[in-house]
Design goal:
It holds the Pfam family SBP_bac_5. One of its GO terms (biological process) is peptide transport. One of its GO terms (molecular function) is peptide transmembrane transporter activity. This is Peptide ABC transporter substrate-binding protein. Keywords: Signal, Transport. The protein is of the alpha+beta class. The chain has two domains: 278 residues, D-Maltodextrin-Binding Protein, domain 2 (3-Layer(aba) Sandwich); 234 residues, Roll (Dipeptide-binding Protein, domain 3). It is built from 16 helices and 17 strands. Strands 1, 8, 9, 10, 11, 12, 13, 14, 15, 16 and 17 form an eleven-stranded mixed beta sheet that branches. Strands 4-5-7-6 form a four-stranded antiparallel beta sheet, with helices on one face. The radius of gyration is 23 Å and the shape is globular. It starts with 38 loop residues before the first strand and ends in a 14-residue tail after the last helix.
Length: 545
């Protein structure tokens, strides 16, 4: 995807006909948590590719989390980096641009091939070499090179010393370790070939697979890593085209778990259903408005900024959270959600927590902007959930209620939307973000880093920090470089606070809401609460019945 984070696609592909699952429906799986009874998980998240080089989305990551090992990983319930395939990883004391990992001895893939440092180096190098448009190569921008210095040692050379974010990148979509004997170095391996190759060393392997219809996972007895042994021997993932069908099956208890994505109304209804448990955990999903600094309204940079500030003073996040999302989302007053180390409420500090028409009018008046300002506001109805229409209708009402704006609200299907916003077609538009890893930098650098369309930088096409233009911001670049390489927690968090203050003052993005993770389970399902943590990894190993 165009890197607004793995898994923002909320619409899945074809639902599986009920016949294939009739024999293994939730009602036919019995036993306690020690029996390893099979579990069926339903989702609307589609899989782009099982091969890590070809995907950067939640649906694919959900499969990869189960079947691949990583050098480091997050145990259920924490965001503490823990060795997985590695026994240890650390910065070299004599050269802090070197990050060195030692591989555990005796590791193997499910096909019997050894897992060594050579496989690890191969895995990261091929992601960069293939550089698939749907892949995670952008996550490895901090990596200059990687090599296996012997069978048990892999050395990453980084662009900056003591990069505090790089260890967490190892746990992302860029981190799965693949078998160099079965994965090609220069192209993505298709899903059926990946399943047949069985080059998996994670807690599960794939026993049966029909893409975006059915995936059956079997516990891997050879797995030796962060998650420990699977509590359930067989987990079946069933894919749905429509959330209403997913809701019906979990309500009827034809499946055991529903994970991504039901509407707020559906969740509220299921909370009242006997035998059904709604489990909520840390999330980090961010919903926000992006301004194209080149094409948005305003005759000068000063006028454009005044319009952005006036909009920031006119939205009512709490109203949207309550009326549209039934409080499954909460107001976001920073691009860094509450709960992340270093998060502030810079937008609340600057613009307040409720609409202020007088403050908004003053921003416009001081810049010589004549009201009402016409805002062409674009949103997507099929990629960020079915409530996007209600959300942006509410934003339109709020802005127009101030008397300062006239909103031309438009929607476009995702296939066209993703192309057009990258082609500067939208002056003001909706985007969303899921974290790659639980660190404040992951909500800042992807949006604020120096941007060169021919090379790299922030993915939103906002033109913020666009090199060699009036939108370049050397000070922001310095602040980002500082926080990424600062090993002192207090000092780093102070710098993160300065970044958020600067972002609130410049408003290239307008944060609106942040969401929790929600999973629905039938009575007798245990472990959902343990895996719904800020790492945003849904671990089958935590589940039992």
């Amino acid at each position: 995807m165009t890197h607004f984070r793995r898994g923002t696609a909320l619409v899945a592909v074809s639902a599986l006909a009920g016949v294939a699952l009739a024999a293994c429906g939730a009602g036919n799986n019995s036993g306690d948590s020690n029996s390893g009874a099979g579990i069926i998980v339903g989702t609307t998240d589609k899989v782009v590719s099982i091969d890590p080089a070809g995907s950067y989305d939640n649906g694919s990551l959900n499969v990869q989390t189960q079947v691949y090992q990583y050098l480091l990983n997050f145990p259920a319930g924490t965001t503490d980096l823990t060795p997985d395939a590695a026994s240890k990883c650390e910065f070299a004391t004599d050269d802090p641009t070197k990050y060195v990992c030692t591989i555990k001895p005796g590791l193997t893939f499910a096909n019997g091939n050894e897992l060594t440092a050579s496989d690890v180096a191969f895995s990261f190098n091929r992601i960069v070499t293939i550089n698939d448009p749907s892949g995670p190569a952008s996550l490895l921008g901090a990596m200059k090179s990687v090599e296996a210095t012997d069978d048990s040692t892999v050395t990453f050379t980084l662009n900056a010393p003591n990069d505090q974010t790089f260890p967490q990148v190892l746990v992302t979509s860029a981190g799965p370790i693949v078998d160099e004997e079965t994965y090609p170095a220069d192209k993505v391996l298709d899903d059926d070939a990946a399943v047949k190759a069985n080059g998996f060393s994670g807690p599960y392997t794939i026993a049966k697979y029909s893409k975006n219809q059915l995936a059956e996972f079997k516990a891997n007895p050879a797995y030796d890593g962060t998650y420990g042994k699977a509590k359930t021997k067989t987990v079946t993932m069933k894919y749905y085209a429509k959330p209403e069908n997913l809701k019906l099956d979990i309500k009827n208890k034809d499946i055991d778990v529903a994970y991504r994505s039901l509407t707020p109304t559906d969740i509220a209804d299921l909370e009242k259903t006997d035998g059904i448990n709604v489990v909520t955990g840390a999330g980090g999903e961010l919903r926000y408005i992006t301004f194209n600094l080149e094409t948005m309204p305003g005759d000068s940079p000063e006028q454009k900024l005044a319009i952005r500030k006036a909009m920031a003073s006119s939205v009512d996040r709490a109203d949207i959270a309550k009326q549209v999302y039934k409080d499954t989302f909460t107001p976001a007053y920073s691009m860094v959600p509450d709960g992340q180390a270093g998060a502030t409420e810079a937008f609340k500090d600057t613009y307040g927590d409720a609409p202020d028409a007088d403050a908004a009018k003053k921003f416009l008046d001081d810049a010589g902007v004549t009201a009402p300002v016409t805002i062409k506001l674009q949103y997507n109805p099929d990629h960020y959930g079915s409530s996007s229409g209600e959300e942006y209708a509410a934003i339109k009402r709020q802005l127009e209620a101030s008397g300062l704006f006239k909103v031309d609200l438009q929607s476009t299907e995702w296939v066209t939307y993703s192309e057009e916003y990258n082609a500067d077609a939208y002056p003001v538009f909706q985007l969303g973000w899921f974290p790659d890893f639980p660190d404040a930098d992951n909500y800042l650098s992807p949006f604020l880093s120096p941007y060169d369309k021919e090379k790299s930088g922030n993915f939103t096409n906002s033109h913020y920090n666009d090199l060699d233009t009036e939108f370049a911001d050397d000070e922001m670049t310095k602040l980002l470089d500082s926080e990424r390489t600062d090993g002192d927690k207090a000092s780093r968090e102070a710098t993160l606070g300065k970044i958020q203050e600067r972002l609130a003052d410049q408003v290239p993005y307008l944060p609106l809401l942040t969401g929790s993770q929600v999973a629905i389970g039938v009575d007798g399902i245990d472990g959902l609460d343990k895996t719904l943590d800020a790492s945003f990894k849904f671990r089958f190993t935590s589940l039992s019945k």
